[in-house]
Design a protein that fits this description.
The structure is a single chain. The chain is α/β, with parallel strands linked by helices. The chain has 2 domains: 119 residues, D-Maltodextrin-Binding Protein, domain 2; 162 residues, D-Maltodextrin-Binding Protein, domain 2, CATH 3.40.190. 36% of the residues lie in helices and 19% in strands. The strands form 2 sheets. Strands 2, 3, 4, 5, 8, 9, 10 and 11 form an 8-stranded mixed sheet that branches. A 3-stranded mixed sheet has the order 1-7-6. Helix 5 links the parallel strand 6 and strand 7. Helix 1 runs antiparallel to helix 9. The longest helix has 22 residues. It starts with 12 loop residues before the first strand and ends in a 5-residue tail after the last helix.
């Protein structure tokens, strides 16, 4: 097969089963308290740094809650996408920001994977940050280009087997949660494919629709519209049960691959040293915003599961996830780059 003409990503990286990661899951804390009216208004904007490209699942969730977050925080909310270096650029900018509650971030599992897959990062994770709350998780779906001659797990595995190592899959960057989610699928299926890393999920989805790559594991919100229009096809949902927002897509568990379950969790964080009073204020605003009727409806349509954890459980959760991924990456033989 002729390698794809794709100017944005670097050269394809061949993956073998030795480098594939298994066992991704998001353990989330639950808190269900609701808060009262919006906070006092301020003209000073609150910046939410997203170490993700526009069009990603994190981006879709943040923008759906943007107006409600602004009302709850009492200030306009500006979404600042900084996906460079797989998200490192945005995280570094957040770490260097003043811990005053005016600069916050919404992040995914990627932030606790980076220390295990990169030899050097310009900050300490999670020591240079103040985790405020795990928000919940977003479903992951394995999708293919519309022209790929497969519509379910059995057909797709047969196609991969017939074209050993020839198909290409994309991700938003090396070592990201969605890269590892695709790698886990290949490990479960005992098959190989070529990895094409992109600088963000948005450009990757564009090339997936265009046929430069054949498949990818992605968050449901980032491709839901493309599934509806037929630009992409879903092979299966990497969830334990079907997702109400996409009830027509069967899970991999249903299709005979019970080990393929991926939950991409999301969390709100701030720079290190955010005062306790600010932590509580921001946490209250997050709970208030995600309990807004319009936001809850948007989250349900996207298929997201909202389970907001308490501030006192956020840092222990990050540390436990950091250790868990370090063990998984080491077990899988993934070498840091």
């Amino acid at each position: 097969m002729t390698p794809p003409r794709c100017p944005r990503p670097p050269r394809p990286t061949r993956l073998t089963r030795r480098t594939l990661l298994a066992g991704l899951a998001g353990g989330l804390a639950l808190a269900g308290s609701a808060f009262g009216p919006a906070f006092a208004q301020s003209d000073k904007a609150v910046r939410f740094i997203l170490p993700n490209a526009p069009g990603s699942g994190v981006d879709a969730i943040t923008r759906a809650a943007q107006a409600a977050l602004g009302r709850a925080l009492g200030s306009p909310v500006v979404v600042d996408n900084q996906p460079g270096a797989g998200g490192i650029v945005g995280l570094q900018a957040l770490a260097r920001s003043a811990p005053d509650g005016q600069t916050l971030g919404i992040v995914s599992n990627n932030v606790v994977i980076f220390p295990s897959v990169l030899k050097s990062i310009p900050f300490d994770m999670p020591g240079d940050f103040t985790p405020i709350a795990v928000i919940g998780y977003t479903p992951v779906v394995l999708v293919v280009n519309a022209k790929v001659p497969a519509s379910n797990l059995k057909e797709f595995v047969a196609l991969l087997r017939s074209r050993k190592g020839e198909l290409n899959y994309g991700s938003g960057g090396n070592g990201t949660i969605l890269h590892l989610a695709s790698a886990q699928f290949l490990d479960e299926a005992k098959l190989d494919a070529r990895h094409i890393p992109y600088k963000g999920v948005g450009p990757m989805v564009t090339d997936l629709i265009g046929g430069q790559i054949e498949f990818a594991a992605v968050s449901l919100p980032s491709v839901q519209q493309h599934l509806k229009t037929g630009a992409l096809k879903a092979i299966g949902m990497a969830t334990a049960q079907r997702v109400p927002a996409a009830a027509d897509i069967p899970t991999f568990v249903e299709q005979g691959m019970p080990g393929y379950v991926v939950e991409a969790w999301l969390a709100v964080i701030a720079p290190k040293g955010l005062p306790a009073a600010e932590v509580q204020r921001v946490h209250a605003a997050v709970v208030n915003a995600f309990n807004d009727a319009e936001v809850k409806d948007a989250m349900a349509r996207q298929g997201n599961v909202i389970q907001i954890g308490s501030p006192d459980r956020a840092m222990p959760f990050f540390r436990s996830e950091l250790a868990r991924y370090a063990q998984l990456v080491k077990k899988a033989g993934v070498e840091a780059q």
